[in-house]
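Handout, section B. The chain below has 111 residues.
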Amino acid sequence: MSVVEVDGRRIELDEDLCLRHLDDWSEQVAAFLAQEEGIELTAEHWEILHLVRRFYQEFDLAPANRALVRYVRQQLGEEKGNSLYLNTLFAGRPARIASRLAGLPKPANCF
């Protein structure tokens, strides 16, 4: 386990560098984690991060890649609901990175 400090708050991360406590998530925490991934969050990133959080609330699990692509396609249309778009936003690992930045546990089938 490791601990990071964001806006004066101690945030615990698990062995996968995901939030240990889902309630610790905030947009500031997401921005901090994104910076560690070398990602500067844009409106397009936030749209997907909020969608991933909604997926988690609906299904009680972080989406794997295929489920993420399908869910984004259903919610936002073909233009954004495809692997190329999501891979571009999240450095080739959309389910893993988007889930981490959204404050969710690592998807079950991600390495």
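Note. The first helix runs from residue 27 to 37. Compare this with the example in section A.
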